[in-house]
What we know:
CATH architecture: Alpha-Beta Barrel
Order of helices and strands: HEEEHEHHEHEHEHHHEEEHEEEHEH
Strand content: 15-25%
Family: Belongs to the glycosyl hydrolase 18 family.
Largest sheet: 8 strands, parallel, barrel
Catalytic activity: Random endo-hydrolysis of N-acetyl-beta-D-glucosaminide (1->4)-beta-linkages in chitin and chitodextrins
GO molecular function: chitin binding; endochitinase activity
Structural class: alpha/beta
Pfam families: Glyco_hydro_18 (PF00704)
EC number: 3.2.1.14
Number of helices: 12
Amino acid sequence: MKKNIIILTFLFAVLLSCRQSQTSTQVPSINIMAYYVPAENYMPDQLPLHQLTHIIFSFTHVIDGKMQFRNPAKSDSILQLLVDQREKYPNLKVMVACGGWTAGGFSDMALTDSSRTRFAKSVTEFIERFELDGLDMDWEYPGMGVAGIKYREEDKQNFTLTMKCLREHLDQIERKQTLTFASAGWQRYYDFIELNEVMKYVDYMNIMTYDQISYTSPFTGHHTCQGYIGWNDIEETPFGKYMMSRKEEWEKRGINWHPRSVEHIVDFCIEQGVKPEQLVTGAAFYGRSWKGVEPENNGLYQPVGGSHIGWCAYREIREKYEAKNGYERFWDSTAKAPYLYNKTDSIFFTYDDTVSVRLKAEYAMEKNLGGIMFWELGNDTKEPQSLLNSIYQTVAR
C-alpha cells in the first residue's frame, strides 16, 4: 500500500511538472502580438497563449458606421472563449481588429465629428461587452484605393481625428486599453497619414512588413525580408533593372520607391520622429509562390513566366516544400531571408522560417522596438519547432 502511494505521488508530481512546463513562463522582453483568425480545428483553448503578450481577434468591420461582426452568431461565442483564457493566462491582452484588406466603410465613418463619435461609441460598447484589452485599427489604406475601397483626400486628416476620438473614448473605460493600428511596410503609405500626429494617440503601430512584393509583380522577390536591401544589391538583376527603368518616372510623380525591408521602414519611421518603442514589426506565417521562374540565381529576382500560385500557410510549407519534394532552401544573407526553388517545376517560394523570425525578434530587441507581431497564428505549424516558438525562445531567454 505504501509503495502504491509513493508511486502515485511520483506520477502526480511528474504530471504537475509537465503541466507547469506547458503553461509556465518567462515574461517576454518585448511584446509578441498574434493576429488570430478562428478556425474549427484551432479554437482559443487550443492556442499556445503562454507564448504571447497580445492576441488580436480578426476581424470586425465598419457596418452602418459602427464596429460590428459580420456574423455575430458565430464570432461572439469564439471571442468570448478567447477572453475566458485570461483565467489561465492573466497577463495576456485580448484585443480585436477592425478592418482588413478590402474592408471598406472607413472613409465615410471618419468623415465628420458625429460619424467618428458614433463609431467610437460602438467600439467602447463592444469592448466593454467582452471585457477586451484594446483595439487594432486595420484601415487599408487612408487616402488610397489600392484595396478597392472608397477613399478621399481628406482621409489623411480624418484618420488622425478618428484615432484621437478613439483614444478619448477608450480612456473612459475602467480596464486599461491598448490602441494600435496596422500600417503598410512601404514608404509611400506614410505620405497619406499624419504620422507623428497619429502616434500621439496610439500605443503601437503594427507595421505589416509582409506582402512586400505584390502577387501581380512580373518578377520574384522577398515578400517579408528583414535585412536592408540597397539599390546596389539588386541593380544587376532583372528585377532591379526593371525597377531602375521606372525610377525616373516615379520621381516625377513624387514617388520615392526603395527596395523594401523591415530595417528600411524602421529606419524611415524613426527618422520621421516615431519613438522606437512604439514600433512593432511584422513576420509572415505564410509564403507566396510563382511558377514559370527561370533558374538563374535560384529563381530570386527573376522574371515570372507563369502565374502567381498564391499564398501558402507555413505549416503546409514545412510539411510539403521546405527542403523536400524537389524544393531546395536558399538563404539571402543581405535580405536575411530564406526562399525555396524547385528547378524541375520552376516554382519559387518566398516566406519566413524559424531562422528569419528569430533574426526579426533579435532586431526588435536590439533596436528597443515595441515588439514583433505576425499574420496569423493559425498558419503556424503545431510542431514543437514552430515559428512562434522560435520568436518566444528568442525574446524570453
